[in-house]
Each structure stands twice: as structure tokens, then as C-alpha cells.
Write a structure and sequence with these properties.
Layout: H1 10-15, E1 24-25, E2 33-38, E3 44-51, E4 54-56, E5 68-71
Antiparallel strand pairs: 1-5, 2-3, 2-5, 3-4
Length: 82
């Protein structure tokens, strides 16, 4: 949990396996986690967040910085038909 707050942050809830939906401010992104990033240009990519302004996003070469993040959805469940 964040040291300055009594309430868990979005990153805290995500890291603890809590349910989190919707776009969150980039400042709350969990570190060392793969998440979906949103950029002002309208692009979104899966990236590994390494720090407040450091991320590794394969295939993204834009000049803008991400403004929001969202947890990745769970993988699809295999059905009997597959």
C-alpha cells in the first residue's frame, strides 16, 4: 500500500489480485507489471511498466507519453468445442 495513503491505490488493488476495471491515471500504474497503456494519439499497447515514466512497449514508436493504464483481461477459457 502507498506509504502516504490509508486507502489502497489502483496499483495496490491490481497487484493484490483485486478487481479493477476501467482506465486509471498513469501515475497509479503498478511497477513491473504488464498492463494496457493508452496514449493521447489514440493508440493503446501492452507494455511492461518499469517506473513512473519508463515502460517497454513493443511496436510503439510514438513521441507522446501514456496517460492511462488498464489491467490486462484474464485469458480466454477453453471450451469443450475447442
Amino acid at each position: 500500500m502507498s506509504s502516504d495513503q490509508s486507502q489502497p491505490t489502483a496499483a495496490d488493488r491490481h497487484e493484490q489480485g483485486g478487481s479493477l476495471t476501467g482506465w486509471q491515471p498513469i501515475e497509479t500504474a503498478p511497477r513491473m507489471s504488464h498492463v494496457l497503456l493508452w496514449f493521447p494519439s489514440g493508440q493503446h499497447v501492452i507494455a511492461l511498466v518499469n517506473g513512473p515514466t519508463h515502460y517497454e512497449a513493443v511496436g510503439y514508436f510514438g513521441a507522446d507519453e501514456p496517460t492511462h493504464w488498464m489491467p490486462l483481461p484474464p485469458p480466454p477459457i477453453k471450451t469443450e468445442k475447442e
